[in-house]
Write a structure and sequence with these properties.
With 488 residues, the protein is mainly alpha-helical. The protein has 4 domains: 155 residues, no CATH class; 144 residues, 3-Layer(aba) Sandwich (Phosphatidylinositol Transfer Protein Sec14p); 110 residues, Methane Monooxygenase Hydroxylase, Chain G, domain 1 (Up-down Bundle), CATH 1.20.58; 31 residues, no CATH class. It is 66% helix and 5% strand. The protein is built from 17 helices and 4 strands. The chain has a 4-stranded parallel β-sheet, with helices on one face. Helix 6 links the parallel strand 2 and strand 3. The longest helix is centred in the last third of the chain and has 45 residues. The radius of gyration is 46 Å and the shape is elongated. The two termini are 73 Å apart.
Length: 488
């Protein structure tokens, strides 16, 4: 078992490799994780604050407070919820940028009430409380003077706070196009950006469901790796039956571990999302989002996630292979040893029952000689060659398993090699002898047949007498040649 022991060393190095693989997978996976939680459903569904995936002329993503849903701001939402909504999508946007961006806000306050105006103004101030978040605020100013007065008062610097964002007050919606391209504005704001809030919400939720599953798998990954490392350090049994039980039991543990990790299901989920991103017409919310910046960024992220998940699947499989390579190797060698013992017993039985009692008989004629060859081939040569091939398969497989450059690396394999050669030589000697006798009778019979044709049927005498008779030699030759068959 010397070669086997050499192949089974290096557990410490493999543990280090497994830890490094686990760290690589976890770090690469965590790159795609948004930190803030998804906003609540009632915030999403209200449509009172939007992140449509549009930008102003400074490249800042737009937050929009539509006029037709402003009544929901003070009745259904809190300022903190709106701030969380904006921070969530700003964080999502900035993860795809080289440097952090600020948002710009568009608020159509032409018909706004005092409560709505106060709500939006105080929300903007709350956004700026801890760090600068807003770059510009584009406000279509209220038509009511008291509302406009309140707005200006709230957004003016005071002793308690200062606003760093740029305030742009507009009298008409058409003036928005001076600061924001019309392709980035929805129809109520004088543009032609196609936006369906219901589809946008559905799309965001589907992608977030995948992200949460992704993060859940990442969190379970270190535990999975630790378990694999612990399994790899278990002592190996010595007998074949114990090894079989050991490998089958731990294979079941690995499959259970893999199911609990959920990596394969995550890969399937990722591939399903990618399929819809490639062919958005298959699902309405994907089709409605196709062509937007959010859709493009999501597609790019999903391609990266697919690569990460595929790499993680491969690495977990590699860790499993590394963890149990020694056990599998030993089990393979034990199985080959069992096969070798079986072939050895069959060869010895063939020797005792057929080869040793066999007496070479020198056949008196061709028929008997051919029959002896046929009987020997059927009863001894064919099964013997099958055993020789089985022995060669065992020896060759062992050399591949133990990487022994074609030479058997176990004592039992050397014994099998010698027994196989002994069988092959013994069977080949008898077969060659029987075939030699058969060949002798075959060629003797052929020579005898030709002898009878040539010497016993008077063709030679007639030919000679005809050639040596009287008359014109040339004429006699022509006559004789005319009567002698061409083959003669």
């Amino acid at each position: 078992m010397d070669t086997l022991r050499e192949n089974c060393c290096g557990n410490a190095r493999e543990d280090f490799k497994m830890s490094r693989h686990a760290t690589d997978v976890q770090e690469s996976a965590e790159e795609g994780a948004p930190s803030p939680p998804l906003p609540a459903d009632h915030v999403f569904n209200s449509g009172a604050v939007l992140f449509p995936g549009a930008f102003d002329q400074h490249g800042c993503p737009l937050i929009v407070f539509p006029m037709d849903t402003q009544v929901k701001l003070s009745s259904e939402l809190s300022k903190a919820e709106v701030v969380d909504f904006i921070n969530y999508f700003l964080c999502l946007h900035n993860k795809k940028q080289e440097k952090d961006s600020l948002v710009s806000v568009v608020a159509d306050l032409r018909q706004a009430s005092l409560a709505t105006t106060r709500f939006i103004a105080e929300t903007l101030l709350l956004l700026e409380l801890h760090k600068r978040t807003v770059y510009s605020v584009y406000i279509i100013q209220p038509k009511k003077k008291d509302v406009l007065k309140l707005l200006l008062k709230l957004l003016s610097p005071s002793k308690t706070y200062t606003t760093s964002f740029k305030k742009v007050l507009l009298k008409e919606i058409s003036e928005l196009s001076n600061y924001i391209d019309r392709s980035q504005l929805t129809a109520p704001l004088g543009g032609y950006l196609i936006y369906c809030h219901k589809s946008w919400v559905a799309f965001i939720k589907k992608i977030d469901a995948f992200v949460q599953e992704f993060l859940s798998v990442v969190q379970r990954l270190p535990s999975c790796i630790s378990t694999l490392q612990a399994l790899s350090r278990l002592p190996l049994p010595s007998t074949y039956s114990e090894l079989q039980h050991f490998c089958s039991t731990n294979e079941a543990k690995f499959q259970q571990l893999r199911r609990e990790l959920g990596l394969d299901e995550l890969l399937t989920h990722c591939e399903g999302v990618l399929e819809k991103l490639r062919y958005p017409e298959k699902e309405p919310c994907y089709q409605a989002m196709a062509g937007t910046a959010l859709f493009t960024h999501t597609a790019f992220d999903m391609l990266q996630n697919h690569s990460r998940i595929t790499a993680a699947v491969e690495k977990v499989e590699l860790l499993w292979q590394q963890a149990f390579s020694n056990a599998r190797l030993q089990l393979q060698v034990c199985q080959l040893r069992e096969d070798s013992l079986q072939v050895t017993e069959q060869i010895r039985t063939l020797f005792e029952e057929k080869l040793q009692p066999y007496k070479i008989e020198i056949a008196p004629d061709a028929t008997k000689a051919a029959m002896l060859v046929s009987e020997f081939e059927a009863s001894i040569h064919t099964p013997a060659m099958a055993l020789v091939r089985c022995a060669e398969d065992v020896i060759h497989t062992l050399s591949e398993v133990l990487l022994c450059d074609g030479q058997p690396g176990e004592r039992w394999a050397l014994d099998l090699e010698r027994l196989k050669e002994k069988l092959h030589s013994a069977v080949l000697f008898i077969l060659q002898t029987l075939r030699a006798v058969s060949s002798y009778h075959h060629y003797y019979s052929k020579a005898s047949s030709w002898y009878r044709l040539v010497l016993c049927e008077n063709f030679l005498q007639e030919l000679l007498s005809g050639l040596n008779g009287g008359g014109d030699p040339t004429q006699r030759q022509k006559r004789n040649w005319g009567t002698i068959p061409a083959w003669r």
